[in-house]
Amino acid sequence: MSALLDVSADVRAEIGEDEAERLLTGDNSPGNYDCTSCRNPGDAVRERTSTVLFVGEETAVLAFAHAACIPSQVVPVSEEQLKGAVRSITGQGSDIAAGAQEAGGQAVLGVTCGLVIVDDELYASLVVEPNGAIARPGSEAAGDEFLPLMIEQGFFPVTSVASAPAELTGWSVLLVGGELHAVLQPGLVGSPSTAWWQAHQPLPVTEGWRNAARQRGKVLLLASPAGTIGTQPREDLLRDALDQAAEGGRLVGAVIPLAGT
Fold this sequence. Notes:
- The structure is a single chain.
- With 261 residues, the protein is an alpha/beta fold.
- The protein has two domains: 5-76, no CATH class; 101-260, no CATH class.
- It has six helices and 16 strands.
- Strands 8, 9, 11, 12, 13, 14, 15 and 16 form an eight-stranded mixed β-sheet that branches. Strands 1, 4, 5 and 6 form a four-stranded mixed β-sheet that branches.
- Helix 1 (9-15) packs across helix 2 (17-24).
- The longest helix is centred in the N-terminal third of the chain and has 14 residues, at 79-92.
């Protein structure tokens, strides 16, 4: 049975006409699949399905998504990011801080997108804040270990938002079709990247945020303990909250590369 697949011209050019036809006729269709975007089940025979080709320096991975989630497209990523993206979009990541847990359950990370002026330049930023105090796995001690854990993962204390923190290698922000999908972190030695934060559904970002991220090829990631920043309705209020967090020694950050488009 033929599959209800959308194969864009860019994807067709990469995989070739023969493979594209085999997909469309059902010979190589995925049948049932997990959507690379929302991670919910899909059926290529019963519903419109997009082919999404992640292309690295040497390899490429063809994935599938609900057409309602993202269109068929080619997403260029580095070879290391390709491995991490595959792990994250197949649901092997989750919305938790790696190596940390909230008392009584998993710690969910809230992510706010905004534009921040740093060193007189406009940065696309992600502000990360857990929904509760973070404890080390297996630890019964009271207190919040979120900032020490972030620093152990390579992030830098931010004492002033007026200056950009250093770049952090191995991490990346995955943008697909102009929507935020994941923040990837390095795996263990010899292992691919994994999802440190994974959106349950693609997170829309503003055109200004996309343009700033694409123009620079980097994103400013800032993180603070639970209850520090909160949900701010305007970017000027977000900046005020970030400045206060930095002055109080409750902010860490890094500049990390943008992956995808």
